[in-house]
Amino acid sequence: MCRKKFSLVLFSVFWGLISPTLFSQIIINSSTKDDLKISQSNSADLILNSLDKSFMPNRVALISLDSPLPLAQDLTGIQEGTIVYNISDAPGLSAGLHVWQDSRWNILLTKLGKRQDYSNLVYLQTGSGDNVGADDITTIPYVNTTSPGVELAKFTSNFTVPKNGNIMINALIYVQMYVQTYGVSQVANTFFTIQVTDITPNSPDQGKIQKFYTGCTPISMRQTPGASVAGINNNPTSAIVFSTMRVTEGHSYEVKVLGQEGWNSAAEIKAGTFQWRPSASLVYNANSVLKIDFQSDPY
């Protein structure tokens, strides 16, 4: 009997000596909190100064950020600094490391959810002041056919899309009727087409065009005969665009802005940059802008 007890003690001591060198920590080897299959991990142990092993916190299904359950029934049963890896998907919780501090669970690290990329692809602005060139002011012709009109060269640009998603097209185009030699008021309906073309070589969509439309009504006012106060003359008006378009990863596109005056053949219409001088020392610039932003699909 003594020999059996002695053998049992030796075996226990021997196992206690060698077992830490084999596995000193177990983990829940499962992708779900309901599977309780337990296995050993060669990558983790409890020796904090180990050079080739990790520390593996316990996987626990927390109840909420304000509850110590299931670790403790109340706040007196849990210690500050307790760390767990939460596997619960309860409201307000996500998988990741949590530490108990200030009577609640604080998130140390959680899995990232889906994300989206945002970027600006095109930003073009007509010049102002001394920087105004030939491309900054475009004469808009009168067109009484289905012609797309004249191109506003300043706003022609190419861009490539980094991922599948959508582009947001924004434009603010200032339009002005130039002063006529005759003294009657004039009204002109002016229309713009924002044209986006897929120019990706060897793509089934190459040459595909999508169009967006906007317009405005520039007015040139004249003093009413016999009146004592002059009219508002010919201050510029504006055409505004806000549209979205589906785009494909890796595809290249060309954007153009085309304008035409479709109602008054006698009017002289220009689009682009304008200056307003209420006094000799006070000058305001009105710059037309085209902006295209990109938003990727969630990934």
Compact summary:
By secondary structure, the chain is mainly beta. It contains 1 helix and 21 strands.
Based on the model shown, name its key terms:
five-stranded antiparallel sheet, 2 domains, Jelly Rolls, mainly beta, elongated
Word description of this protein:
This protein has 299 residues and is mainly β. The protein folds into 2 domains: 24-110, no CATH class; 118-296, Jelly Rolls. Helices cover 7% and strands 40% of the residues. The protein has 1 helix and 21 strands. The chain has one helix spanning 2-22, and strands at 26-28, 38-40, 59-60, 83-86, 96-101, 104-110, 118-125, 137-140, 150-151, 157-160, 165-177, 186-187, 190-198, 209-216, 219-220, 237-247, 252-261, 269-272, 274-279, 282-286, 289-296. Strands 7, 8, 11, 16, 18 and 21 form a 6-stranded antiparallel β-sheet that branches. Strands 9, 10, 13, 14 and 17 form a 5-stranded antiparallel β-sheet that branches. Strand 19 (274-279) and strand 20 form a beta hairpin. Mean pLDDT is 79; it is low at 13-34.
